[in-house]
Amino acid sequence: MNIIQRFERNRVGRDFVVGDIHGCFDLLSRAMDTVGFDESCDRLFSVGDLVDRGPSSHEAIDWIAQPWFHAVRGNHEQMAIGVAQGRHDHDNYLRNGGGWFLSLGDDRQKLVAAVFDTLPIAIEIDHAVGRIGLVHADIWGESWDGFLRDMQSDLSNSKRHKLVEVALWSRSRIQAHQSGYPTSSVSDLHAMFVGHTPVEKPLCLGNVVYIDTGAVFGRSLTLINIADCVSAQAEAA
């Protein structure tokens, strides 16, 4: 499993991060046009959940193939991988928007799942504003470096599985916030971008920025220039 993918500083263009796409690639294309995205020098990072529920999930592997597009693995990609490997319930995936994938032949399912299986659990970007991290849902603990160190250490399969589950599925941080508990930042990073839990507008809990604004449910798709993330955090607070 690809745990972490690291990117050096982009010294010639801009870096953007996008919330959960869920097959709404038409919205993403329009958002990129709005910001004047330049494929020759800009980069686009995704917090995962490229597929399911939306109209164009089949386009995901074409986007993944683009040299300027980089995504972490979401729980919906993981469900597709599990179905192709015989480890995830078909009915459960169907209820979660996976009908497009289930309609594919076995060979095509395995091909698409193999592409999804190349996606890392985490992305780290060296950026002028500071070190940026991306995971789909959250990390275990409050230290980015500690989480990555644990993920890459000599763990048992069951312990690593638990850490991956947190990265792909956890809502503990935002649920604690919604229950009135104080929130803390993730150390070792300037900001950590996550998706998974739909919010009305980008929400900052410490330096953790939630950017799944529910595009597949008829709301807006959030696309943020990382250089503006300080002002974006201030606006969302």
Automatic annotation (TrEMBL):
Its EC number is 3.1.3.16. GO terms for molecular function: protein serine/threonine phosphatase activity. Keywords: Hydrolase. PROSITE patterns: SER_THR_PHOSPHATASE. It is an enzyme of class 3 (hydrolase). The keyword Hydrolase applies. Residues 72-77 form the Serine/threonine specific protein phosphatases domain. Gene3D superfamilies: 3.60.21.10. PANTHER family: METALLOPHOSPHOESTERASE, ZINC-DEPENDENT ENDOPOLYPHOSPHATASE. This is Serine/threonine protein phosphatase 1. It comes from Dyella japonica. The lineage of its organism: Bacteria, Pseudomonadati, Pseudomonadota, Gammaproteobacteria, Lysobacterales.
